[in-house]
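Encode chain A's predicted structure.
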Amino acid sequence: MRMTYAMFTSHCFAEMSSCMAQSHGVAKDEARRLRERAYGVFMGWRVLAGANDEIDRYMSDEQKLAALLA
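Encoded structure for chain A:
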């Protein structure tokens, strides 16, 4: 199945949100692993979604996803 930009962005947002939520209340090493996974998802999204023709939408979504990592 081919994913649309919106589907892919939504999937990445959910994965990043899940990792960041799980990183609270766990051991330090596990929390770091989960945060690194979320960052990896973000970087993958940037590479794959960056080819999107809708640059304004991409920039807006990039800011929202980056905020999850803060």
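Residues 17 and 68 are 7 Å apart (CA to CA).
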